[in-house]
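Quick question, first post here. What does this chain look like in 3D?
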Amino acid sequence: MTSDPLQPPQPPSTWSRVPAGPTRPPRLYLGLPLPVWVFAWLPLVPAACLAIAAPGFLAPMAEARVRLAGIPPIAVFLLLPLINLAVAKVTRNEGATWVTIAATSFLGLVLAILGPAFVLILVNLST
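> Answer (accepted):
Ran it through. Tokens below.
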């Protein structure tokens, strides 16, 4: 018996096959899986660590003389997880969600480290 060249080769008999039964969908919390909810808040981790390690380090971020669209700069940290959750909810695409979480986590790290310096520079330039 010759094999058909258009058919894929059969796997060896030693391979185990997973039965192709129905799979249980992941449990959703307000329409999103739990890992998305957990990792969406990842951009706040650097700011929280700095706030615990050096309590006064982020104090310039609450400076009243510097506003971004009418809100204090420290409120930008709260926008980052909301961006993650909005992308996850709207796109329903795992790739886009994880890329957004990675990008906002990097932005959160940069804002936590350099944000207070930028605010102090802006305050000093305005005087």
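The helical segments are 34-40, 44-53, 76-91, 94-126.
Residues 94-126 form the longest helix (33 residues).
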